[in-house]
Every structure is written in structure tokens, then in C-alpha cells.
Specification:
about 300 residues; alpha/beta; six-stranded parallel beta sheet; 13 helices; about 10% strand; globular
Length: about 300
Amino acid sequence: MSQQNLLVVIAGPTAVGKTSVSLSLAQYFHGEIISADSRQFYREMEIGTAKPAQEELNSIAHHFVNSHSIQEDYDAGSFARDAEPLLDSLFTKNKVQFMVGGSGLYIKAFCDGLDEMPEVPKEIRNELNEEFRTSGLEPMLAELKRSDPEYYEVVDKYNPQRVIRGVEVLRATGKPYSQFRKDNVKKSHDFRILKIGLSLDREVLYDRIDQRMDVMIEEGLFEEAESLYPMRSQNALQTVGYKEIFDFIEGQYDKDEAVRLLKRNSRRYAKRQLTWFRKDPEFHWFQPNQMEAIIARIEQEID
């Protein structure tokens, strides 16, 4: 490959407009799109993951959308390994390609690399997912506080996957998760990476999230979650948009409360996404309607 090749990363919170922006950019620069949304990988999760519409998928080639089953274990390290040869092949078609999504860990894994982590038996992960489903995160947070206070201090305590990850490593190895987390030597690439972050005023973003959730519910989100309920212990389903409905199905609250929690938790998720991406100084920030400025920044990088 060549340093003339450019990967443009388009990232930001849920509902900010990443799909629309990335489609326009991919059309303009004749590139393809690698999805870095860890929920859009899964074929069975359609409505609750806000995948691009079929006509959008048809208009620009997308990769890592509907590529896996929720019964497969697929993590950020696997994504980074699989996306590398794919990008190599895409660069033979065009020197500008796009990676788009809101899953910060997956983007970081590809761009910067991840620490080597121990393998965790699937039984332990399933057991913890079931514990989370029945008892919530508090007992696991207490376990981390006792046995891995270093990780407890930094973990996002509202993010089930991050908390469960720390506890599963503890139980699988008998060693704290923080012991395996080191400062990586940054992964090197023989292509350049330009990171574009999308953001909106908070009130506007939160209103878009609420409206999107209303549309998802009208399109059958509750029915989709009900069809997935027998597989609720799968790691892919420990996520906003499904967990709230599973709890409703089990009678923990009524439908109005489920809808309120779906919207609240989606807003909280967006806030966590923004916090993650804003920690990376390499991002250049734009609003999604600033297409001319975004195109100019990419062209500047190409030149």
C-alpha cells in the first residue's frame, strides 16, 4: 500500500447523522464503507440498531453490516484483524475509504491496537450475562471494587459490556483486568488516517434520539426484542434498546416505563460515546450539515 491511501473515520454519538454524512462522502470520493458499529454486525438485530436502509446499502458497498450472527462471539480485536485485509483490498480500487460508526473501542482497536487479553471461556461470559440480567450491575461493580479497584476507578459504570469484561477476566484468570491493560505502542499503518467527529447541540441531539426511538417502536422494536428474548443471554444483546424491553417482558415495569427508559438510556449512551471520542485529540469536529467543510478537510488531507 501507500501513504497516499487515506482512511477517513466518521464517528460520533447515536442519531447524530453518521449514515447520511458517510453516504454522501463515499459517493463524492468513490469509496466504500466499513461499519464500526458493533451492533450492526448482527443479522438478527435489525430495528434496534438503526442500520442503513436497504436502498442505502445498495447505493454504496457496506462491509460488516449483517455479517455475523448474535450467537457468534465477535469482539474489537477480531474486528481489527478482519478489517485490515479488507481495507487493503479496498485501497486497490480507490485511495480514499471510510470507516463509520459509534463503537469507540472498535475504532480504537483498528486505528491504535489493543492490549493482549486472555481468552475467557464462553460459559463464564454467559453466566455473567445471566447475572446481569437478573441482578443488574451493582454486584459486579462491588466485585470489581474489592478485587480490581484500579479498573473500578476508570470503568464506565453504566456500560454493562465494560463492567462484565472486567469481571469475566477476574473470574477466568484470578488476576485483575487492570493488570492486562497497558499503554500500547501505537499501531502503525502504511496508510494515513483522518478522524472526523460529528456532534450536535445537546438539546438537538437528544430530541433526535427521542424521535428515532419513537420511529423504532412504530417499526416494531418491541416485537423484534420479543423474538430475540430466548437468546437474551447472548453478549450482543446486553445493550441499550433490548435490555429495557427484556425487563418489560419479564414484568419489571409497564410499557410506558420501558419507553421512558429506552429514551433515557439512549441519551446516556450518546453522552458516553461523545466523552470517549472527545478524549482523542486526533478528531476534527464538525456538525453533520457542514458537508462543504468536511469535504474540504478531506481534500486537504489528500493533497
